[in-house]
Predict the structure of tRNA (guanine-N(1)-)-methyltransferase.
Amino acid sequence: MQISVVTLFPELVSAGNRCGMVRAAIEKGRLTVAGYNPRDWSADRNRRVDDRPFGGGPGMLLQPGPISGAIDAAVDEDGGTRPLVVALSPQGQRLDRHVIADWAEREQPLVLVCGRYEGFDQRLLDSRVDVEYSLGDLVLSGGELAAMVVVDAIARRLPDVVGDAQSVVEDSFEADRLDHPHYTRPPEWEGRGVPAVLSSGDHRRIAEWRSEQALMTTARRRPDLFLQHGPTDNERAALERHWLAGSNDNPGQPTDTRLITGGGK
Ligand SMILES: C[S@@+](CC[C@H](N)C(=O)[O-])C[C@H]1O[C@@H](n2cnc3c(N)ncnc32)[C@H](O)[C@@H]1O
């Protein structure tokens, strides 16, 4: 899969390419990440790419010319399927795992465009960008970290990159549920033990325990996941067992009783 990153700081993105899953994906030939610096398309002899906003106001804006030059070069470079041009912006749609999974599964070539200063000239967005995506309701000083989040989240979903593919399938959000708690050695740490079932060797009971724990964590922390994708009949029964019976394992209460009474999948 080909990802091009249009950025004033290609060295920042390259640093991410040298670590962890992104590095593994690149080394296994599953992913190519190329940087395009808009300064290389600046007409200014000092390679300037910013200017004051029309109408006044604080800060500087990226000029459209150098950014469009870098985007056009990245699009042309790809040669095959036309890449999707994505601007990273706090005004974009919220990035989530569905978007990432879709891009990774289709190996959709991407051009990720990183803003700086006050962001992009609107004409650049109108003429070159297919879609804007945001990391969430916070403002970064540049799009590079957001682009690196996209690259990392995609890399771990590409075939043969994560050692045990099952671990990706069991991650939070995969089945619209959060992950279950994990424990490793030592069996006792600072006076805290490990749930006995995990040492029982009974794989059916372990799987049941994990799935119930994932269910409870989701209900307590992210009931919105349930409200979008209602609990199955089995999950509803487990929730009733734990909460309505006042289970010691899970003393919390669901924040929304529709979790228990809502329609099943
Ligand atoms: C300081 S921000 C510009 C913010 C812009 N003036 C606004 O209020 O929408 C500079 C750049 O950082 C990136 N950025 C900031 N917050 C982001 C977010 N939540 N998600 C993705 N990119 C973000 C964008 O590329 C943006 O152009």
Summary: Confidence is low (pLDDT under 50) at residues 249-265.
